[in-house]
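Note to self: keep these together.
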Amino acid sequence: MITIIHGPMASGKTFHKQAFAKKFDCTHIVDGWNPQTDEVPADRRLLLTTAEPHEIRDAIRMDRPSAQVRVIDIKTARSLIGVAHYAPGRTQRASL
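Structure:
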C-alpha cells in the first residue's frame, strides 16, 4: 500500500511526517513528491505532495495502475493522528 498525503505548503505535512508514517505503517517517506516528474514508488511509502488529487490519480494510472494507493487530504491525515486539522498559526477558515 502506498499512502499519499496532499495539501498546501505549510499545512503540516513535513512537520508530522513521522507520525503519518507510523500511523499508516510506511517504511519510507518521500517529501515533496511531484506526480508530474516523479515515479510512483514501491509499496509502504508515504508520499507528501502539494499536488491536486486529479494529478495524483493521473500519475498512478500511468505509472502503477495496479498499485494499492490511499490518497488522504491533509485535514483528514492530521485528524487521524490526533492533531488539529489546521496548522498552527493558521485559522480554521484557511483553505487546506
